[in-house]
Amino acid sequence: MPSITIYVRLLDEGTDVWRPTLATVCGDGVFRILATPNYNPEDESWEFLPGERVRCEKRKLSGGECIVAVELAH
User: In whole angstroms, what is the distance from residue 8 CA to residue 67 CA?
Assistant: First the structure.
């Protein structure tokens, strides 16, 4: 199953912070989030967690256009 880099918003950071991580492509703009090798839920609070299916869209971030998780997919 192919995977790509998507960005997940970090919560409780005081400003918008996005964590790059890999996700598998499920189709129709839906991806399943994979944990980064150093993922630590006690260190960072991700808006969406590894293993969850999310709907993504392209957004312009400071590093350019990226694919970001915007909502849970059902």
Answer: 9
